[in-house]
Amino acid sequence: MIVAFSVTPLGVGEDVGEYVADAVRVVRESGLPNRTDAMFTSIEGESWDQVMDVVKRAVAAVEARAPRVSLVLKADIRPGVTDGLTSKVETVERHLAE
């Protein structure tokens, strides 16, 4: 499964990059395939429990320093698919090249 999520600290001002970095650090240290862009961090794992544990710990890292946290999450639950973070993008790029 792939989960794309965004953790936003609230009540800390406009510059939130330092807080978001705490969440991304948790994701990268998880060892699961992941990708971060300007809006979301995506993480891929074998099971709901495996991926959601990382999301929960990423939220907790921000929550430890911010009085309020907003979480946006989108999941693609597709058993048997691996390397979806890469293969989905490769498929789109292949169609663009046609």
From TrEMBL:
Domain called Thiamine-binding protein: residue spans: 3-93
Any matching Pfam family: Thiamine_BP
Entry's Gene Ontology cellular component terms: cytosol
InterPro entries to which the protein is assigned, alphabetical: MTH1187/YkoF-like, Thiamine_BP, UPF0045_domain
Family per similarity comment: Belongs to the UPF0045 family.
PANTHER family, sorted: UPF0045 PROTEIN ECM15
Protein name: Thiamine-binding protein domain-containing protein
